[in-house]
Amino acid sequence: MQSPSSAAPAAATPTKRPWALYALTVGAFGIGTTEFVIMGLLLQLAGDLQVSVASAGLLISGYALGVFVGAPVLTAALSRMPRKTALLALMAIFTLGNIACALAPSYGLLMLARVVTSLAHGTFFGVGAVVATSVVPPDRKASAISTMFTGLTVATLLGVPAGAWLGLHYGWRSTFWAVSAIGLLAMAVIALFVSAREAGAGSAMSMRDEFKVLKRGHVLLGLGATVLGFGGVFTVFTFVQPLLTQVSGFSDAGVSAVLLVFGVGMIIGNVIGGRLADRAPVRTLLGSLAVLAGVLALMGFAMHNPVLAVLFIGLLGAAGFATVAPLQLRVLDKAQGGGQSMASSLNIAAFNLGNALGAWLGGVVITQGAGLAQLPWVAALLPLGGLAVAWISVRKDSAATPPSATPHAQAC
Fold first, then answer.
1. What is the CATH number of domain 4-398?
2. Cβ burial 258-279 (10 Å sphere, 16+ → b, else e)
3. Which of 146, 25, 152, 27 is nearest to 89 (CA)?
4. What's the number of CA atoms in the CB half-sphere (13 Å) around residue 316?
5. What is the pLDDT of residues 220-247, one digit of tens each?
6. Would the pTM of this model clear 0.85, i.e. be above it?
7. Is residue 247 classed as helix, strand or coil in its secondary structure?
8. Are 320 and 407 in contact (CB under 8 A)?
């Protein structure tokens, strides 16, 4: 539960042009670029650092696990700090971590630098989501979350292909130098456009009380659905470069163009998911997970054809990011009454635990000899599991809601 001073921005009349919300998208762009750009650099990293492609893929798992650990720890540690100050501190950690990545002389030190960079990720998005929902009307909360995450999706559309191009022509280290510059820009924009009043004061809750949100069954179910849903996306997307070159027949240079299609899909899915979740959060939550499972299953057939491969890479981006706003909103709603910042950060951690799960599962599929072409079919099982978990949570809602209130429950 936030202190009265921290809740004040939510009670204020929302601005017509919430510049704080747009400023957060710049930070999200930088974080999204550094998180996803490794996918376009796997072969270069593996060759330069003399490790296998599967080992290079663990740089994604290491980052994701760092987010998983860092999100609750930093959220609790920074909970009493004014939110604007916390956001700037987190972007400073992010920038220094990327500089360390650019300078890393070995695989082990690069992994360490990636983990340091990742520590800021979950708390930035978690605190940012709370700030984003506080500057818009109540019926626009899901869209506010999707707007902030637009920075993440644009990072995939522009940042990741640009990073892959830089890595191909100037070496993978140049990519991390570029991301470090984005981090500095994000700090400047947040400092200018996020006011202390809009961001809010820190929480008055103790660290122990912050973690009590984990005792809520619906919050845990929401986190589980997030892990499984995004685990399916990253079982495939972690290995998108070798999948496109070795199964679909694209050249190394052609991968960047296909990643642009994935980015376009992410933006479209993110916007659609946010708008639909504003109107019907529960139906959007269940429907988006079902669609994601279907897209992954069909990808198993499509990846052998270059044209269909491009189409389904775009559909994967759309289906995957259509789940983001409803999943995040579900956890925020179920944490009302105390611990929203912690729940929000934990859900970002859950997205990244899903990333780590997907990268690990994809590596197992490859190393056990099943082959790259089998990845989509294995991946489809995870969002199906997420759909089952979300359905259990929805059924628990229905069982706890009086019949006269059922229509409202379904709308919420």
1. 1.20.1250.20
2. bbbbbbbbbbbbbbbbbebbbe
3. 27
4. 32
5. 899 999 999 999 998 998 888 888 998 9
6. no
7. coil
8. no
